[in-house]
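Quick one: examine this chain and its backbone structure tokens and tell me how the chain folds. Here goes:
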Amino acid sequence: MRVATDIGGTFTDLVYVQAGTVRAVKADTTPPHFEQGLLNAVAKSGVRYADIEFFAHGSTVVINTLTERKGVKTALLTTRGFRDVLEIARGNTPDIFNTYYRKPPPFVPRHLRLEVGERLDYRGAVLTALDLGELPAQLDYLRGEGVEAIAICLLHAYRNPAHEEQLAAAIAELWPEVAVIASHQVSRNWREYERSNSTVLSAYVMPPTRAYLDNLHQHLAAQGLGPAPFIMKSNGGITPIQAAQADPISLVESGPVGGMLGAQAYGQLIGETELLALDIGGTTAKCSLIHDGQVEISNDYVIEKTPTSAGYPIMTPVVDIVEIGNGGGSIAWLDAAGSLRVGPHSAGSTPGPVAYGRGGTAPTTTDANLFTGRINPAGFAGGEIEPDQAGVERAFSELGARLGVSGKQLAHGVLQIANANMVNALKLISVNRGYDPRDFALMAFGGGGALHATELAAELGVPKVIIPPFAGVFSAWGMLMLDVRRDCIQTHLQLLDAAGVDELAREFLRLQDACAAQFAADGFRAEQLRFEWHIDARYLGQEHTVKVLVDELLLPVLLESFHARHQQSYTFRLDAPVEVVNLHLVAFGAVPKSPIDPLAASPSPCAEAALRGTRLVEFEADQPLETPIYEREWLLSGMCFDGPAIIEEATTTTVVRPGDRVEVDAYGGLHIHIQVQGE
């Protein structure tokens, strides 16, 4: 028995696999006691804790702690003279013409940023030895200020962490109760401000993240779970719970990336290597691009970036995701100019959409899908909630009256605006990265992905939509398909030339040995390990880099790979020397996977056996169509049919537009071929 859970803003998803059979359930998320929603999901599934051999978990606890400012009071110890790096930050304003721009305030105020005597040069050589004479008095001061966590970021520690290690050890001896993390434990990259900020944010979330993971582990152990949980990381891998507690900022996008890696895994299973992955949940919509069967990993992650704020950079590898505040619970509202908006505010699970009947009065995207017939009222929320249809109609009618339109017209307007927001997000991850979305298939999942996917694909010119099995809980399913992963990134400046290739190999092998030792400490054998080498490189004299996979240590191959990647990202290539900036070693520790069994093949392509009746659905305002309703559980491999159609399952609903064609693959995935406008 293998189990994975994903705690989202609205629902907590659980997937379990036993003997090739997959089952899934959803339960309400229960803030602030998130573990209760997880326990409720396990109870609802009927899984016995004693039968579980593997347990994976993803959550939004770190990003929520940051965005809601619920971390602990944090101090920063840094090299003398560099106290204000955190406040000076960068001058890279998101919009140079926006006069309302203000630098985001640092998470550590100036009176909690203290300096220590020490200095390294850029090679890591000691210029001034570490002076710990003032440390006892400094710690006494921080105790008096109520500090609970200390971040250490010393100049050039990415090259030589010796002073940081000595300082952390001294703090642990003098004040063992305080949480401490040093910058070399978070990032071995240069960039003083980004490294300082990353370390500060990691310290800020460390106590609440540790408490959350400890509490989760204790609750699960008390219920009879034997193995310690694995935790989903932002880099697209899982990690033992102890490693997650030691590096909490690596969990900043723990929840969303499971689905993106699940899309990669399912794409490999069915032979689809070019995918736009879209996850629409109750609160947000998230998308990522998969090219040549691989997700993009970014080291330049930023939270809270807006037109008036540069946000806060975090130096941790994160699956490249674009996220917007549009999901099933996104609230429709009128702005000051009287224009209709959808999101980013969400009704969450409490009170939830109006249809939940829990006191919500503002219409949401889910309410619009119900009101237009896309969602079956008899199967709403898996049949567990009888929707308040009168309340939904009233909410749309009242808001529509303010705009001079009917309730139904307003509901269609809500869906159109929500779709437009999601199309913009998909363009950001594709067109803005130099990719044509028409060259990809759209794989949609999450509770709302299948409801919107066909209309989004038609708008973008994407030829095919894929709705994978267990789409409503796909992020949790994805965690069952992943290996343990570590990313070792080290700043290493050198020219990419004939003399430098051997040096690259030596440095990568050194990193590889160190990473293998970390895996060995976690109980992994050498034969379980697999390594990938990447470099971050640029033309000599440039500022920004592109990431290049080192397939072969042959100079012509490496240079051509760099030039091609640079041209794809920036539209040009130069006849100029190439400089390596960072080495990026990706290490995987293999764990057993949970493959899904193929479906029985249908003796006929006809899908009549899965047909469960019809109902009126409005694909266009005031144009109801009598639409066939299919039960997904009864769709077999090889079946096909034309839209319009609605395909229902316990955790989501798939909308097939008139003219689109559906085919069922060997594993139950729905391949919807999109009718191009004018055909």
